[in-house]
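Minutes, structural biology subgroup

Action item carried over from last meeting: produce the structure token record for Sugar transferase (Nocardioides endophyticus). EB confirmed the sequence was re-checked against the source entry. Recorded below for completeness.
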Amino acid sequence: MTLLSVKRTRTLGPPSRALHYLPVSALVLDLLVMVGVFALAILGRNRLDVFDNTSDVTATLQVAGPLMLLGWLVLIAALGGYRNDVFGAGTDEYKRVFNASLMTAGLVGVASYLTKFQLSRGFFLLAFGIGVPALLVGRFVLRQAMHRARRQGYLQHRVLIAGSDVHVDEIAAVLRREPWLGYEVVGALLPAGQTRDQTGSGLPVVGACEDVTAVVRDSDADIIFFAGGALTSAAQLRQVAWDLEKDEVQVVVAPSVSDISSERVRVRPVGGLPLMHIDPPRSTDASSIGKRTFDVVGSLALIIAFTPLFLFAAARIKLYDRGPVLFRQTRIGKGGEEFTCLKYRTMVVNADELIAQLQVDVGQSALLFKMKDDPRITKPGKWIRRYSVDELPQLFNVLRGDMSLVGPRPQVAREVALYKGPMSRRLRVRPGMTGLWQVSGRSELSVEEAIRLDLYYVDNWSLVQDVSILGRTVGAVFGSRGAY
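Output recorded by EB:
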């Protein structure tokens, strides 16, 4: 069973060799950024009036410059900035580079003072003032390039998942849903009494959990995930880690926890046992004074900025069919309270009377109902909807307190009536003009995926996430991705 399955997984090809060059690529990128920053610092020191230009610093920097550059790179490496496991996801990579940069600045300053070395203060300020953000931007660009390559099937980690059938499929679904992580799931290992050809989701079973070391080596896997049901004791996990110590295989324990942000998770070792603490959901924080202040200031600024667009869109709608400019509809807001949601009218006047028949024609549920080539949409309504201009009047809903700039989309009563189980948690926060599902595909997503993203937002709210979603909204709108 094991040999046949492993042989089948080998048809997927060998592990990506390019993964081994990621640390070198990051090192070369950091070196180029530093050289460019040092050149700018020297030029700025000599040209800007704010610095004392009575002496030429080039001579002293012929010695200090290479030493600073080498020391900076060494500290980044010492703090783990070039480890394979920091690339691609999380903030660990940025933290390591940032901390190493601050340490370098501190050590250079102390060393210059103790040795009485005449290092230009102007050069020092420019080198680290420009260099630290430049390094972080460089790592961000490298990460975006990695994500793009992984979505195209490159830079993939070969992953095996060990555990019970249900837990394996749960972990595999999460990894497949996020292709930018670069995890290519090549097979599963099930407990000895549950072995079969494949799991419920169709993932090939390559062996039993008890034979994990041999199967991992035979399949050339880079990572082994241990899900629920894989291990019978802590000693078994420790033994596997020892067995794979020299095989450069990463061992990952995947708890039965998903859709929880890293800010809510804290790992505290107690007596050698790493305990995972999960903070309560943050739905109450999403109604805080800070978020409300952000909404008021943001909506006022956007209303002022988009005034010409408001007038242009209103004129196009009015001149087309002489009908009303605004479409007013009763929606359900926070706590199930009704409010009047404002939008530019993009459909024929009797659009609501036609929706029931359209749902029957396309066979789609009323929940989050959307369809391509909707015959009710008017000619000016097509471009208005394409670039989400129809949503702009909702800025007044935000100003009034009915809505927020970011949150789950407001729905009508008939859609809310279809909520089941945890779906009602969407009503714990103010509905938003934009949200996670809008910037993750909009109408291209399934209903289940859209709801999952909304619930994730409600439970894991943060102001930083709101700012990030607003930034991503700009790209989603101008790219017209999933808009119809």
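Discussion: Residues 1-13 have pLDDT under 50 and may be disordered.
Next step: EB to file the record with the rest of the batch.
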